[in-house]
Structure prediction request, 366 residues.
Amino acid sequence: MTGGADGLRGVVAAETVLSDVDGAAGRLIIRGFTLDELAGRTSFEQACHLLLEGMLGGLPDEGGLCARLGAARVQAFAEVAALDAELRGRPPLEAVRALMARLPDGDDLEVALRLLASPAVFTPAVIRAAKGLAPIAPDPGIGHAADMLRMLKGSEPAPAEATALDAYLVTIIDHGLNASTFAARVAASTLAGLTSAALAGISALKGPLHGGAPGPVIDMLDGIGAPENATAWLEAALDRGDRLMGFGHGVYKVRDPRADALKRAVQSLAQASPELPGRLKLAEAVEAAALDILRRRKPDRPLNTNVEFYTAVLLEALGFPHEAFTCVFASGRIAGWIAHAREQVLSGRLIRPSSHYVGPVPREAA
Ligand code: ACO
Prediction:
């Protein structure tokens, strides 16, 4: 068995202490903690500390990491000046990636912190630039999630909003050997450096089969418009051969535990929002209809709600435009890419699998 024809499903390509995805039980463990123990209870900085401990020389304690990450946001902000008219016209993920590519490469703490800070700084700047608004400089003295929202909107967010973004960033911080993390580990294994590894990661994240799905989830909710339209709309989409965005997963055969963590975050946020309860009601109706239809149409395939479905509802409620959702995903997952890249480098192994040649044979060998 080459594994290649099946997209390497089930092939173990790395040993890791960072996270474990149990697709049959629907359980995610991040460095010894279940997702439920972390999401909504820890800040992004605390979760970063958990992932990076032992991976980087000189890593400060949790309090020190908050201060250093704040300072790194200020350093990363210097690159925003490079956001020219050409980059402003590109899709947000391409603009964020281009700014990240300006950061120096290397393997030390300084490089790691600036990278860790960078998508959270670049994403609000890119969103604002597309609207003709000037970027807002970071405030190194507040939490990472709160500062990301402040750089987006220009004023400090309500505590519930910062808590919701923290819950999101922690929920998606790491997830086994997903496509972007694998790409980051492959680049890191060549000793290319952390920036190169993160650029490999963000490029793999871009596609709709991985991190690019939540934008289309919003298109789906907008297209459906009201709960009573859900079934007819979804049936028509499947009749056209479309996939329902936010459903199905390469590893989870049951419900993705991150969907529940994010739904809880949306429910908390909805308590203080006039519009969100209605949007949540629509999302719940669409989810129920989609699960019912998928079960009926694909009885042999366990297709359940994945992380992207409630990601879309949450990030929309926080004020991020849907075309930039994948950039917010990268703002959390960057911690996983850095931790995995360091773990790969520390293992000392170059990733170099084999391929199975199925092309034409030279005439002399036939
Ligand atoms: N809607 C309708 N049908 C689906 C869906 C879906 N969302 N997902 C899978 N299927 C069907 C496929 O059409 C296929 O059917 P067939 O065998 O009759 O041809 C079957 O289920 C298996 O599809 P695969 O692509 O082989 O399944 P895989 O497990 O590799 O797919 C994936 C996982 C890519 C996430 C898929 O479920 C999908 O495209 N989902 C929609 C996009 C999405 O939500 N992406 C975000 C994923 S989460 C993340 O990466 C962060």
In short: The longest strand covers residues 19-22. Residues 208-211, 213, 243-250, 298, 301, 303, 306-308 surround acetyl coenzyme *A (CB under 6 Å). The two ends are 24 Å apart (CA to CA). The CA atoms of residues 89 and 130 lie 7 Å apart.
